[in-house]
Amino acid sequence: MQRQTISYLSQVVIGPATVGGIQAGAFKIGDTAGTIDNIIQCKLYRPGSVGFVSKSGGMSNELYNTIARVTDGIYEGIAIGGDVFPGSTLSDHVLRFNNIPQVKMVVVLGELGGQDEYSLVEALKQGKINKPVVAWVSGTCATLFKSEVQFGHAGAKSGGEMESAQAKNQALRDAGAVVPTSYEAFEGAIKDTFEKLVEAGKTTPVKEVSPPQIPEDLSTAIKSGKVRAPTHIISTISDDRGEEPCYAGVPMSSIVEQGLGVGDVISLLWFKRSLPRYCTRFIEICVMLCADHGPCVSGAHNSIVTARAGKDLVSCLVSGLLTIGPRFGGAIDDAARYFKDAYDKGLTPYEFVESMKKKGIRVPGIGHRIKRGDNRDKRVELLQLYARENFPSVKYMEYAVQVETYTLSKANNLVLNVDGAIGSLFLDLLAGSGMFTKPEIDEIVEIGYLNGLFVLARSIGLIGHTFDQKRLKQPLYRHPWEDVLYTK
């Protein structure tokens, strides 16, 4: 089969075992040249006059530094890697450097093993390279060992006299390259060659420029007080940066030592202040009374079905919580909002209900599927009793009761439900405590704080139903077909 020659235009393959390459002041690929500090130290922020190619990636950084000390720096540096068959050879790059006008001299670092350096020797002998080449082949110490030694790279293994570092160095020297007597003399050879080019007028050292300022590490600058990093999240309710978490500035240990309860924690995290005990106790009562309402309501039903599908706790809880809305537990905020607006405007229960009717809006907090005027919701009665005995004022609750009296004259199931009771009583809590301004109360209702109580409370029951189904090892739920009306 005839071998095809593929043209890669101006593209060059280096590696595969390479740390990369750099064109000073332009770009770098791979990890070569190291950190920004090292790039600045080795003058790699701007192009110099030296083309450099090496088998060793680790020694590349060393030679970048060496070349920067004794010349005006490198124009381009390449590490081809130490594989036996690299993607491109030393001579490939030297020949390429020979055709780059900005490159005035070439530095080559080879190593024992293989015959790659001999292709460079041939190119020198044939006159293909007209720029000074300073070269060194490392591995001369191999002759000190009695047996053959494998150095770090796959290709760094002498396979005979010709592949020894000494033979390669001599061949390069005979072909016209500048080859020192040892690696220690390599730096001096590079310096002498560059200075001769300058003296002969064949090159003018690149003018030094001020390197770009290295940005200071952000964490260091913040610690020194030089900068203030913009924040992505703002938190005003808790702080965990000290020895212990603080809720609204109150240390966790203090909360426990004072015997504060869940209601107190909610008051700190939600309202950012310590509410009076009668307020936090009311919050706890709301949570207890709303924790569960049996397995048949939509939220519990969803959690049960999800649990029986084998899902995890969080999935079961979320499936139940997603049903909370205006028709199920999500009416507390709306009840508070409408009752407050009507009371503050001085509307009579008749005016309020009829105006809502004209708007086509059901009064939130009024109505129940089961409870009636002669079968009141025990939870509502408990909340009203507690408020009358402990709250300084219950004006909003009394207004809600007056609205209930009017709606019951329309239908026996239009009773004040637990959403309406909590919504109106929370208005009394906020207004009666004297700890909230009118704008703050409006904001609390608008944001959705009160529905948060129902979400928190009902989570307890939904988790309970999830555990209950898993404990009972209930199978996958499928709704009975006889409970579905199939129509066309």
From TrEMBL:
Pfam families given in the database record: Citrate_synt, Ligase_CoA
Catalytic activity annotation: oxaloacetate + acetyl-CoA + ADP + phosphate = citrate + ATP + CoA
Query: Could you give a GO molecular-function term held by this entry?
Result: metal ion binding
* Domain called ATP-citrate synthase/succinyl-CoA ligase C-terminal: residue spans: 53-178
Q: Keyword Lipid metabolism, does the record have it?
A: yes
Keywords, in A-Z order:
ATP-binding, Cytoplasm, Lipid biosynthesis, Lipid metabolism, Magnesium, Metal-binding, Nucleotide-binding, Transferase
Specify the enzyme's EC class, one word.
transferase
EC no. given is 2.3.3.8
**Residues spanning the signal sequence:** none
Where does the protein end up? Cytoplasm
For this UniProt entry, what's an example GO CC term? cytosol
* Gene3D superfamilies the UniProt entry points to: Citrate Synthase, domain 1 (1.10.580.10), Cytochrome P450-Terp, domain 2 (1.10.230.10), Succinyl-CoA synthetase domains (3.40.50.261)
Q: Which domain of life is it from?
A: Eukaryota
Fetch the CDD domains from UniProt: CCL_ACL-C (cd06100)
UniProt main location, coarse: cytoplasm
Q: Name one GO biological process term.
A: fatty acid biosynthetic process
- What's the family? Belongs to the succinate/malate CoA ligase alpha subunit family.
Q: How does it assemble?
A: Heterooctamer of 4 alpha and 4 beta chains.
Q: What is this protein called?
A: ATP citrate synthase
Q: What are the top taxonomic ranks of the organism?
A: Eukaryota, Viridiplantae, Streptophyta, Embryophyta, Tracheophyta
